[in-house]
């Protein structure tokens, strides 16, 4: 299925779930939409925190068509959106047309689903994809570098792998520095402030089996965590795991 058809299926409500594994070799993107008055601070925040917030495109105020996705509409082409007002999640919707403002600036942020495809291409299974679940994501004690109103801690995604595969997985993901790159932590979750691995803050719990090691990557859900501190009057983001699908080949982001 090509990306135009995937976006059409999302737009019409035929696909409503997480997007992990559905776009093959095409880049998926996290989403952050803010009023223009916050755009510089957010862009500076992203530049200072490229690991969790790697920007791949910025749409100017009022624009909603990505140059990297033919016939796309940012307002309808994500399966689920989170609406935050004054730092509080107020609604999750499948269409943000009614919320749209002419001063909205949209940021598309690199997504770990890109390196997931590279892991799969290497013949390594990924547990949450095999189980048809969303990836597990956690708030951590890893601080970001603040910029303007934006400050807070990094969110990570977790995937368990057999111990003997961890080094190979690290090497694969290091090849995608603008898609979160290599992991920020391997092993003991408590070392990065995760007290209960069975209760993710976002996504679905994934069991860590015997002989498996949890591996953690910086995650594009970080802006949603940071907005809890910044409290702008509105921020619209993707619901975790529900991405915007572009026409860009993953290989274009391989170093």
UniProtKB/TrEMBL annotation:
Belongs to the D-glutamate cyclase family. SUPFAM superfamilies: PSTPO5379-like (SSF160920). This is Putative hydro-lyase JEODO184_00872. Its EC number is 4.2.1.-. HAMAP family: Hydro_lyase. The lineage of its organism: Bacteria, Bacillati, Bacillota, Bacilli, Bacillales. GO terms for molecular function: lyase activity. It is an enzyme of class 4 (lyase). Keywords: Lyase. InterPro entries: D-Glu_cyclase, Putative_hydro-lyase, UPF0317. It comes from Jeotgalicoccus meleagridis. It holds the Pfam family D-Glu_cyclase.
């Amino acid at each position: 299925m090509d990306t135009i058809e995937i976006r059409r299926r999302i737009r019409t409500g035929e696909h409503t779930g997480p997007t992990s594994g559905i776009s093959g070799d095409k880049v998926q993107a996290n989403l952050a939409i803010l009023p223009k008055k916050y755009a510089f601070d957010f862009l500076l925040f992203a530049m200072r925190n490229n690991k969790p917030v790697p920007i791949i495109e910025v749409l100017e105020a009022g624009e909603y068509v990505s140059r990297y996705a033919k016939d796309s509409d940012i307002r309808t082409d994500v399966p689920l959106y989170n609406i935050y007002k004054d730092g509080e999640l107020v609604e999750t919707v499948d269409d943000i047309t009614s919320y749209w403002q002419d001063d909205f600036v949209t940021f598309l942020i690199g997504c770990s689903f890109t390196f997931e495809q590279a892991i799969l291409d290497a013949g390594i299974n990924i547990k949450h994809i095999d189980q048809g679940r969303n990836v597990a994501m956690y708030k951590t004690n890893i601080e970001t570098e603040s910029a303007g109103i934006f400050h807070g801690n990094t969110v990570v995604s977790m995937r368990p792998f057999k111990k003997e595969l961890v080094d190979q997985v690290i090497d694969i993901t290091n090849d995608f520095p603008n898609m979160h790159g290599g992991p920020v932590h391997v092993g003991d979750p408590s070392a990065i402030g995760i007290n209960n691995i069975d209760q993710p803050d976002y996504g679905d719990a994934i069991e860590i089996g015997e002989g498996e090691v949890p591996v953690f990557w910086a995650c594009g859900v970080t802006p949603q965590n940071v907005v809890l501190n910044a409290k702008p009057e509105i921020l619209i983001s993707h619901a975790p795991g529900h991405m915007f699908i572009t026409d860009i080949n993953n290989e274009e982001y391989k170093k």
